[in-house]
């Protein structure tokens, strides 16, 4: 018999979904009407041996408690902050994620947001579309990137890929994270606050966790300053969103370019109404190629687990 798998969200890759159906007995929670999901789950939960979820959805202790035979949680994404790792570890449930395969696309989006903020792309697009150019209305100049400092909070795979791209644009790069990275020529700041003080652009690429919650607070935003720009492609939880809105509204922070938010997909109206922000809907890894690669890694981890082989990308 095929192992029974509870799928909490679909992969955008049709090929990945076909592989899941071929190799496992899949139960798709995401296909059920929301008001019927709890009752539906009761009918399948007892035999579920694996869960496929996403970084945003994760899995909590209450759902795990309903799955007495679950052996593995396969996360389609890097972040595991929405997974109750205490609960999985207590029961010896394996957890996997999909690092590496989305590095380049997320780093590309970080630079897209940085460039869009620096060159005021949304405002320039609006200026042309609404006839401002044709009418000869004045337009404020943007800022060049060459020679500016790009500070990166979190210097793992994605942080280092962002650094390479920023350097290609002639930017100076510095980073901060608690553990120093050996072998990199990029200077490490003494603290996040020191990094913000030294940066023209502060890019957030650190993992979401209780330790990093609201790490970018009012003090850090003030240190980044009136001409500074915050770019976040990591997790919304890393930024104190209320402090960010206040800093943008008061112009104590120059701009923000955000792909992630505290309560997705609900973005505060106060943030959406500001002109000095660039907003995208958590699409850092949203390319055909990367979403397939992420889904394929999920499938490969499930295959490895049920074949008694080492997991490809276990979460420690």
From TrEMBL:
Q: Which UniProt keywords apply?
A: NAD, NADP, Oxidoreductase
Q: Which GO terms describe its molecular function?
A: glyoxylate reductase (NADPH) activity; hydroxypyruvate reductase [NAD(P)H] activity; NAD binding
D-isomer specific 2-hydroxyacid dehydrogenase catalytic domain segment(s):
10-315
Work out whether the entry's keyword set contains Oxidoreductase.
yes
CC per GO annotation: cytosol
Tell me the SUPFAM superfamilies matching this sequence.
Formate/glycerate dehydrogenase catalytic domain-like (SSF52283), NAD(P)-binding Rossmann-fold domains (SSF51735)
The keyword NAD belongs to this UniProt entry's keyword annotation? yes
Protein name, UniProt field: 2-hydroxyacid dehydrogenase
Q: Which Pfam families match?
A: 2-Hacid_dh (PF00389), 2-Hacid_dh_C (PF02826)
Superkingdom, natural source? Bacteria
What region holds the D-isomer specific 2-hydroxyacid dehydrogenase NAD-binding domain?
Answer: 112-284
Q: Which family does it belong to?
A: Belongs to the D-isomer specific 2-hydroxyacid dehydrogenase family.
Q: Which InterPro entries match?
A: D-isomer_2-hydroxyacid_DH (IPR050223), D-isomer_2_OHA_DH_cat_dom (IPR006139), D-isomer_DH_NAD-bd (IPR006140), NAD(P)-bd_dom_sf (IPR036291)
């Amino acid at each position: 018999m095929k192992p029974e798998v509870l799928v909490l969200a679909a992969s955008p890759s049709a090929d990945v979904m076909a592989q899941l159906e071929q190799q496992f007995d899949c139960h798709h929670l995401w296909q059920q009407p929301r008001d019927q999901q709890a009752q539906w789950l009761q009918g399948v939960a007892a035999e579920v041996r694996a869960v496929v979820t996403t970084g945003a959805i994760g899995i909590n202790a209450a759902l795990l408690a309903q799955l007495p035979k679950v052996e593995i949680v396969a996360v389609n994404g890097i972040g595991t902050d929405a997974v109750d790792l205490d609960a999985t570890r207590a029961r010896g449930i394996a957890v996997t994620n999909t690092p590496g395969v989305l590095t380049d696309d997320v780093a590309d989006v970080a630079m897209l947001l940085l460039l869009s903020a620096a060159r005021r792309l949304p405002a320039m697009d609006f200026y042309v579309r609404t006839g401002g150019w044709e009418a000869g209305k004045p337009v404020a100049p943007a800022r060049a990137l060459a020679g500016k400092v790009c500070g990166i909070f979190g210097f793992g795979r994605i942080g280092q890929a962002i650094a390479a791209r920023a350097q290609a644009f002639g930017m100076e790069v510095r980073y901060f994270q608690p553990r120093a990275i050996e072998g990199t020529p990029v200077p490490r700041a003494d603290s996040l606050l020191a990094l913000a003080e030294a940066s023209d652009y502060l890019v957030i690429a650190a993992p979401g966790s209780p330790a990093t919650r609201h790490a970018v607070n009012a003090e850090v935003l003030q240190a980044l300053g009136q001409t500074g720009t915050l770019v976040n492609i990591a997790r919304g939880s890393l930024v104190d969103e209320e402090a960010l809105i206040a800093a943008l509204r008061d112009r104590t922070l120059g701009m923000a370019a955000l792909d992630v938010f505290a309560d997705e997909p609900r973005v505060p109206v106060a943030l959406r109404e500001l002109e000095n922000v660039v907003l995208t809907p958590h699409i850092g890894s949203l390319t055909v190629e990367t979403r397939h690669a992420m889904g394929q890694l999920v499938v490969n981890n499930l295959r490895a687990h049920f074949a008694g082989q080492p997991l490809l990308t276990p979460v420690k």
